[in-house]
């Protein structure tokens, strides 16, 4: 076994740029890498350079006709049949090349794990989980998450678990593997009645022959750190223990934060840190440490995403940051002119919620803000937990009403 973790990075990832005032601004990636560098997290870490995904690799998930449409889009323009040229997915120059490089980055991260070079690998530019087989959706052109999972399966990996903590339903990944019992997709997201894409109900369980391999936990708007972690720990660990994945793939969107402009959950950066540490523990416990980490959403570009994903990189690298540490002065000096009207954060904590600087916990029993699910009902959150457990736990031989499962 080689290095403990690998970071896949190329400045060309910033070319995935939907332009104008589009919410998915690549500045969030640049600011994250600058912050991680300022903290010294990337000292002695040689980034892994990706290559673009090939057509054969992309066509494990996407249709040849769709690839042709993406290639033609910069000159053809509007193509609503393939979701191109819309407000969510505007056409941009070299769209295919930029999108294929991100998908290739996620394959590169997967290759690091399969080869034995590392047990953990991260592609922050990845996590484009909404793209479907034949159309773009939700800011996503190629579904790098699904492409990387398909690549893992092609290398002989027999069971892959995908856990999506983005505020939006991981619909494209679920669709790609809805009939494949080798892939467990678990999505925790804001309730689909209150947020796009309007899917991700507990009753979406997988196709015939793969029942129980699609898992959806729909959270009420306003859910904060303690509630989110309560729901997570009531569902995810038991399913991973039953499924026994050989690789854990996680999509780590930061748009569950209370400041995110596109959604209505209420987590903090401290809650995100607790989530990442919990995912690391689950990878170590249930996947022999094999953890493929992808980025995702996150639209508070200056205040949230760089801090959240710097904690993510620290977690992957095993160099956890003290949340009380101040934001580096040179990062502040770089960011301030880019967002003159945005109050920049001064520390790596929001000083609220689970896993905050006061506890430093991973959001489990040691955290005073966290209470494990005990089978209770009544609150919308507990009812959401019960709905998901009752829908899927029996399909894995688990008792939905026993809090020990």
From TrEMBL:
Which top-level group of life is the source organism from?
Bacteria
Biased composition annotated in UniProt, kind: Low complexity: 353-367
What protein is this chain from? Acetoin utilization protein AcuC
Question: Domain Histone deacetylase spans what residues?
Answer: 22-315
- Pfam families, alphabetically? Hist_deacetyl (PF00850)
Single GO MF annotation: histone deacetylase activity
Q: Which GO terms describe its biological process?
A: acetoin catabolic process; epigenetic regulation of gene expression
Per the record, which residues fall in region Disordered? 344-383
Query: In which pathway is this protein known to take part?
Result: Ketone degradation; acetoin degradation
Q: Which InterPro entries match?
A: AcuC, HDACs, His_deacetylse_dom, His_deacetylse_dom_sf, Ureohydrolase_dom_sf
Task: Give the similarity note.
Answer: Belongs to the histone deacetylase family.
Question: What keywords is this UniProt entry annotated with?
Answer: Acetoin catabolism
